[in-house]
Please model this.
Amino acid sequence: MTDFYTSTEIKLSFVGKAAPQRVLALGFFDSVHLGHRKLLGFTRSLAAGSGYVPSVYTFDNDFFEALGVNEKLVFTLSERITVLEELGFAKENIVVGSPAKDVVKTTGEDFLNFLKEINVKAVVCGSDFRFGAGGALGTEQLKDWGALNDVPVFVVPLLTEWNRKISSRDIREYLELGEVVIANHFLGRRFFIRGVVEHDRGVGKSFGLPTVNISTDRRKALPGDGVYATSVIMPDGSRFKGVTNIGSRPTFGESHKAVETHILDFDGDLYGKTLTVEFTDRLRSIFKFDSKEELKAQILQDIERVRSTTDD
Model:
């Protein structure tokens, strides 16, 4: 049977003792958007009222590739775990289906046996939840299994706004358009990127405006090309305002896409450090300047615009 556990904490939680009794939220929760939050909030409330442990089922970063779908992740697994922890789910109770290429081929029967293996006492899912190879089974089959095994199954209606369901696909489209304010609304928090600071050519530093280049997972969704107001979270948890450029650097004849951020009022070496960059608004498009001096003047305007904003 597929090994569904990727977290060391999850594996260790079963050593020498029975698995905790769980209320398990089922889904992928790619973006942990407002609809997901409604479902997860119900899961926590149900667990609190029953004395069970609130738990979440999700997938690793290879999920879309396993399905043969050309989609990007709104949040990578590590980012998603951070958001789930913010919502009150302990890391050791986040169950990860991995490798997804094996899990998506798992029969519905094996998946339901897995739920018994991890001691699930109640299940919460959305009305569009599917499981088993090819997504052959849905909520009706899940409820039938629950009735036979004395495991209540709670199906949460999909949350809608603007007369359509809230979906990760729409959020990806808003991000691609640079509409980070709308994306943040549907996410229920700021969209963010987390990555390691890499060495760069140091062009910004050469004219007094140093930037940090942040590596990103190739499967991660990024906002569309543009310049953004951001909030940068340091390894120690401190925050600084930032101006983040996503895209190419046409003034310098560079066409490859990069994520680079000027951190306001910060002076220090961050190479090799992991930073989190939260996106608050889009400032402008990227365009080619006639000179380095014109680019610097525009960046200074961007900085003053960000500096004057309140960080809510």
Summary: The mean pLDDT is 89. The chain has eleven helices and 13 strands.
